[in-house]
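User: I'm new to structure prediction. If I give you an amino acid sequence, what do you actually give back? Let's try with this one:
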Amino acid sequence: MPRTVLLVALVLVAARPAAAQVDFSGEWTPIRSMDNTENPWVGDWVGLPLNAAGLARAEGWDASILSLPEYQCRPHGWAYIYRGPTALRISKEVDPFSRQVLAYHPEWHQSTNMPVYLDGREHPPAESAHTWGGFSTARWDGDMLRINTTHMKEDYIRRNGAMISDEAKVTSWWIRRGDILTWINVVHDPLYLAEPLIRATEYRLNVNSLVPAHPCTAVYEGLDKGVVPHFMPGENKFLGDIRTRYGLPLNRPTGGPETMYPEFLRQLRPSTWTLGKGAGRDDAIPAAPPQPPGGAR
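Assistant: Good question. You get back a string of structure tokens that encode the predicted 3D arrangement of the chain. For your 297 residues, that looks like this:
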């Protein structure tokens, strides 16, 4: 085979995508579920593996902080936004010569630029700037796309004070089965999480749907200049509400690794809310139920 013909053949083979690759581009509508309604009560961190520092950070959160000008227009970050209620558009960036996909660009109603690079580039140094979307690179695991994200800002993982730090890292998988897109996030945070946080969301393909713009202007909402709403340790008066709602005894945590496992259900007592009688407050927080043999995990 002449050398020129051989080189052309090698270029064509290199430019051809692997057989396992799939196309994630398109407009997607979220499939809602009870697990990702994300309209939580203050203090409801059940199911989140927060460590002691993470719980302390969450307990000091005051919802009024969202009235600060710098909070009013902040976008959702990579560790959380995929669980939101808005439509998702994934655009693909293609090399005009090799026709290889260089990057995917996911965007939502309340997001910032979040490119996912497939061109083999390295992550920047640790001291580089952190952003809401972080810095994401990806590779193929069979027909799944594995995404590694670093350099994120501190941001919430539940919209009631549960946070990850700016040292967190996220591993995501995109899995497409026909018109269903499954998005799995595994969050690792050495500062606020005792264990990895694993959650998933699904989208359905919705051809010709729209992702609207998100114009936002910060305004004065009544906070005095220099005031940052917060609670000192032990002063958050709202934390008792979630115990009453779930029938959670005073000596059991409202978040942490223990709350992730089915055995934690044994700690709960019936309440007006769990019995389907409305969200009214009970007269008292229940005492701790008897411990099972060997204790609950």
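You can read the tokens as a compact description of the fold. Here is one thing that stands out. Residues 4-19, 280-297 have pLDDT under 50 and may be disordered.
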